[in-house]
Amino acid sequence: RLEIRELEKNKDQWNIYLLGMRKFQSMDQKNKLSWYQIAGIHGRPHVAWDGVESADGGGGGYCAHGANIFPTWHRPYLALFEEILYLNARQAVSEFPNGALKDRYSAALATFRMPYWDWAAIPPEGEGVYPWSVQREKVDVVTPNGTETIANPLFEYTFHPLVPSDMGGHEWSVFPTTLRNPSSKQENASSQNDLVSHQLDSMRPNIQSRVYNVLALQKDYHNVSNDMVSGDSLESTHDTIHNYCGVGGHLSKLDVAAFDPLFWLHHANVDRLLAIWQALNPSSYVTPFKSPWATFTIPRDVITDINTELKPFHRNDDGAFWTSESIRQTSIFAYTYPELLNHSIESLITKVNALYGPDATPQWSRNSLSAPSNLAQRATLSPNRISGTPNFSGERQYMASIRVCKFGLDGSFNVYVFLGDSGEDVTCWTSEEAFVGVTGILATGMKDEQGSGDVTGAVPLTAALEARVRSGELKGLGEEEVTPFLRDNLKWRVSKTDGKAVDVESTPGFRLSVLVARVQPARSANEFPKMLSDYEVLAEATEGKPGGFRPGDPL
């Protein structure tokens, strides 16, 4: 599987990708293998797929979130999507007349796999993190009839028809297409991709730092796999991308997110990051864990483990299901990722450092042909901004750890961290000079006040603190300097994904703590920094603040 910008450079594979996506999305929604029904496995409309019925005590869609099988459940889900996409692309190629062009497309089909979107790496110069190719409303493709301009299947999915009862009410029952940052909650709303682009660019450096922390420092699968444990995880970072691509649109609503074409590019990257982490840590994998809430086939409080059936994904015609054990290696589905080709541990560490580490650089060249004519070239972010990429030159790493009730605000929401004051306009928070980072909580409308619904996220603080050292506002990075500085300057705010600010004290279960750990800096490009201690709480940094950590609080 290639990064979407790299796939786009292969004109033949890109063309059959778009043709296959168009065919996939145009399938009758009553067809079990249609876009509508495959997307519906994840959440709405909460009906059985492929004959796999709901369990007693089950609820919601099939997707596993907040669970040890969150990343592994999505692996066969992506493989199913990829197989159907391939079949549609193959059908599109078969419709070309015999000749050199058809031969080219047939050859391209042989190695075609679905792409991923790397939302953490530094984008090509002049481009933002949000690919041009998913923002265009129209796109040119080569068909058996010549070059045609079609609706871009990466821009949105059009329901045909929209079934309001399937969508669970509210705006989801009136939007005829998937939307990103919708301009309103009315039927005629449109996507505001320019705003999505701007906010993703503002938060990307902190996302890069979060990904690097997980890949370089986390050694236990359980901590990486889900957002129920203290600190950061792939799932929490994944939630943040969902919320910042959806911004009140489909991607920021767990139940309807999979209808948006961007969902599949996003989750392919989550799977890639999991595969990279697995290659770095081959001995750590799924261990037993109590499910914090129900899915369609797994009741709440059931223990899931490496042999739990990943329903509704059948492994064979005999009715057996895939498990985390059987999908441990991506090769079972005949795909891999560029970083994992003929890799050694040292070479993989070098690649991770080049992509996400302190000295990371853009790994792809710009593909200017994909840039829509009505979109401006991205501006470089101000060097005065204090959020930033990972820096492990020092011996301390600081992190804001957030614990909050997942369903406490009746939908998805975000927690923002600042070193200083912020304005009242939520849409400008990621552009504030004081902005450090944000973590998102992806949820449904199931309000849950119980502690078992708590999830965690994190915002790395080290790069922002180092920027304050360089500016002279902070004397050093020792706890004796950082603690009083954070007590005076660290602030946090909460907003729902529709842009409404929420009082921290009205956010159920909210607690923010500052954690610090000692690290040994890496000595070369093929090494990671090493943890020399567990994270400890700097209780005085948040003492007396609304939602701040208090002694005795869970981390």
Automatic annotation (TrEMBL):
Cofactor names: Cu(2+)
A GO biological process held by the record: melanin biosynthetic process
MF GO annotations: metal ion binding; tyrosinase activity
The keyword Phosphoprotein belongs to this UniProt entry's keyword annotation: no
Pfam families linked to this entry: Tyrosinase, Tyrosinase_C
UniProt keyword Metal-binding present: yes
Domain annotation Tyrosinase copper-binding: ranges: 65-82, 260-271
Enzyme class: oxidoreductase
Family listed: Belongs to the tyrosinase family.
Reaction equations catalysed: 2 L-dopa + O2 = 2 L-dopaquinone + 2 H2O; L-tyrosine + O2 = L-dopaquinone + H2O
Official protein name in the record: tyrosinase
Keywords: Copper, Melanin biosynthesis, Metal-binding, Monooxygenase, Oxidoreductase
Superkingdom, taxonomy of origin: Eukaryota
Organism this protein belongs to: Lojkania enalia
EC number: 1.14.18.1
InterPro entries in the record: Di-copper_centre_dom_sf, Tyrosinase/Hemocyanin, Tyrosinase_C, Tyrosinase_Cu-bd
Entry-linked PANTHER family: SHKT DOMAIN-CONTAINING PROTEIN, TYROSINASE FAMILY MEMBER
